[in-house]
Each structure stands twice: as C-alpha cells, then as structure tokens.
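lol forgot to send this yesterday, sorry. struct tokens for the thing we talked abt
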C-alpha cells in the first residue's frame, strides 16, 4: 500500500507542476501492484486517498513559497 501512496503522490505532484505524461507510467505501476487488474488498481488508489492527502499536505507545508509556485 505504501507503494501505491508514493506513486499516487508522485503523479499528483507531476500534474500540479505541469510535468505531463507521468500519470500514465504511474498508473501502469499501480496497475502492476494490483496484479494487472485495472479495477483492483482503482480500488487500491481509492483506499489510500486519505494517506495521499496527508502526504501532500506535509509536502506543501514544508515547501517554500517558490517551491509551491507562489510569487514571492
């Protein structure tokens, strides 16, 4: 489950910061964690969303305004 949290966080951060194309690779990895079953992969992601939110909040709180993409 930690791998799914980490990969979902990575995909989310890539989207936030405009790195397109990574989500597909992340999805493939998560799907592999679920034995190649897309429905199971989606269930895994849904199961860890609260943890994903917590990790993203911690990253956001630790980031400087410049790292967040905010004007100084």
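and heres what i got for the seq, position by position
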């Amino acid at each position: 489950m930690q791998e799914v949290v980490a990969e979902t966080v990575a995909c989310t951060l890539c989207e936030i910061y405009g790195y397109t194309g990574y989500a597909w690779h992340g999805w493939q990895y998560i799907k592999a964690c679920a034995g190649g079953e897309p429905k199971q992969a989606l269930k895994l992601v849904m199961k860890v969303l609260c943890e994903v939110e917590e990790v993203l909040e911690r990253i956001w709180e630790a980031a400087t305004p410049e790292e967040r993409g905010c004007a100084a």
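The mean pLDDT is 93. anyway ping me if u want another try
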